[in-house]
Design brief:
By secondary structure, the protein is an alpha/beta fold. The protein folds into three domains: 15-67 and 95-124 and 313-453, no CATH class; 131-266; 459-504, no CATH class. Helix content is 19%, strand content 34%. It is built from ten helices and 33 strands. A hairpin with a 6-residue loop joins strand 32 and strand 33 (490-491). The longest helix has 17 residues, at 391-407. It is globular. The chain starts with a strand and ends in a 9-residue tail after the last helix.
Length: 513
């Protein structure tokens, strides 16, 4: 079946397998199946719409609406949402059912959902089970982490995205089971690795690309189980040590030259057509242990999934952006940030920890089930627009609401971008779908004009004035702001970060994280 995207007007295909999937995940209520129609947006526009709900890294200083205490929040102070600190939001001090209301069949569902969303307390940070990790978002079960985003089960990690089961790592992207790594991307099970990409089981090395099982190597590409190699040339242990000693690796200027030299060197080597291993009948990139997964990216341990990104342990899932986690997600469609043992979740945002049978809801967690159009519920069941019903009442009313949504052409679509609590420019959507303010508003996205006040510091240092080596950095740098050489925005160095640089003889960064 060929269709034309409602937003970008491009052609896209709905296959027979797609139709079978929509039938498979269609909700069953009181023994009756309510079929999900084929999407009216193309896969890219569906992804863009979900990403417009994902404020991953734009953080603000704010105050908890319940306690008045200072907090870090993804909601800018000018927004009218009621925002609770993470620990208070999860507590029993409040109940989302207090905001319940009747469904009004004279109005559209999305309008009513927007009103509920505007009054129900929101979670300051998307976080669960963390210790001493207040300055981070979309993280779970982390300890002593700072400015990391989309991360699970880490300790003492700083700056970066998509850390999993890692310790004492900094300025990394997409790493798992790593320790003492710095400026590494898409690396797995590595130790003391620096400035490297697409590596696995490597240690005590610098500037590696696509290496496996290598140790004490420098500037190498496509090596397997090698030791004491320098720019892909075999050396004795003594020769290798002498070559490394010839570089002042503690110098920022030296590292910048090496980065360019290694980038040019790595271009001479063939690249694998796809990153990943043990994939069967799957397409996309950065796939590991997948079967029958199509157009998936940064996905592990998945089966029978399509249009899934940055997720783990998914089965029978389409159009999912982020999460999954260790307990995964099953039989889900058109969702953002769901996982940790969820199933039968449709058209929802932020649903996790044992939830099931949930439709068109946001931020409902902790074994909640059989919810429709709800916001901010915990341990809840058989609720519609946060109002409690009996099982029998719920199963009578939901079919009527679905019929109403079919008449208003809302049924089968994710939340409109205009309902997102964030400006398009606050989310990560522009990383994949760049739009200026005029373009974003024209397409129905929101935009934020809020400007954060500059931090009060003793003095600001332009990045180019920072001493070239870490040995010449004094502790007073902790009281200063460094002006990024690219954006001219100030950033600071924290104590544990400075200790990491000194221990590993790494110069201070000259760019904002």
């Amino acid at each position: 079946m060929q269709k034309i995207c409602r937003q970008c007007q491009t052609n896209f295909e709905i296959t027979d397998d797609d139709l079978k999937f929509y039938e498979k995940v269609s909700p069953i209520i009181a023994g009756k199946t309510f079929n999900i129609p084929a999407p009216t947006f193309c896969p890219d526009c569906r992804q863009q719409r979900r990403l417009a709900w994902r404020n991953e890294r734009t953080l603000y200083s704010s105050r908890c609406a319940a306690t008045g205490k200072p907090i870090i929040s993804v909601f800018s102070p000018d927004k009218k949402y009621k925002v609770f600190a993470t620990d208070y939001w999860y507590s029993d001090a409040w109940d989302g059912k207090e905001y319940g209301r009747d469904f009004d069949f004279s109005r559209s569902f999305f309008d009513q959902f927007k009103e509920l969303l505007s009054v129900t307390p929101q979670l300051a940070l998307s976080a669960v089970g963390n210790q001493n990790s207040d300055y981070a978002n979309q993280i779970g079960w982390c300890k002593n982490c700072y400015m990391v985003f989309e991360a699970d089960y880490n300790e003492s990690c700083f700056y970066g995205n998509n850390y999993v089961d890692s310790n004492f790592c900094m300025d990394c992207l997409q790493i798992s089971n790593c320790e003492l790594c710095y400026e590494c991307t898409d690396c797995k099970s590595c130790y003391n690795l620096k400035f490297s990409q697409d590596c696995q089981n490597c240690s005590d090395s610098w500037f590696l690309k696509n290496c496996i099982g290598c140790s004490n190597c420098f500037g190498c590409v496509n090596l397997r189980n090698k030791q004491h190699y320098f720019f892909n040339q075999k050396c004795t242990k003594e020769e290798y040590g002498a070559k490394i000693a010839a570089y002042n690796l503690g110098s920022s200027a030296t590292l910048q030259k090496l980065k360019k030299e290694f980038a040019d060197f790595s271009q001479k080597f063939p690249q694998k057509y796809i990153h990943g291993v043990q994939n069967e009948n799957s397409t996309g990139d950065y796939l590991n242990n997948t079967k029958n997964c199509q157009n998936c990216f940064s996905v592990e341990n998945a089966q029978d999934s399509k249009y899934v990104s940055n997720s783990r342990n998914t089965r029978n899932v389409y159009d999912m952006t982020v999460f999954g986690s260790k307990k995964g997600a099953d039989f889900c469609y058109e969702n953002h940030e769901i996982g940790e043992g969820v199933r039968n979740i449709l058209f929802s945002d932020q649903i996790w920890d044992g939830c099931y049978n949930i439709l068109y809801s946001k931020l409902c967690v902790l074994n909640s089930h059989d919810l429709f159009g709800c916001v901010g519920l915990k341990h809840a069941s058989y609720c519609i627009l946060n109002k409690q019903y009996t099982k029998e009442e719920y199963e009578k009313l939901v079919p009527r609401i679905i019929a109403h949504m079919k008449e208003t052409t809302e049924w089968g679509e994710f939340f409109p971008a205009s309902l997102s609590p964030f400006g398009y420019n606050e989310t990560i959507a522009p990383l994949y779908f760049p739009l200026n303010k005029e373009e974003a508003l024209k397409k129905g996205f929101n935009w934020s004009d809020f400007e954060q006040p500059k931090p009060q510091v003793k003095r600001t240092i332009p990045a180019h004035e920072i001493p070239d080596t870490i040995e010449n950095i004094n502790d007073d740098i902790l009281d200063c702001a460094i002006e990024c050489e690219i954006t001219q925005k100030p950033f600071r160095i924290i104590k544990t970060e400075l200790e990491f640089y000194r221990k590993n003889n790494i110069p201070l960064p000259q760019k904002n994280s």
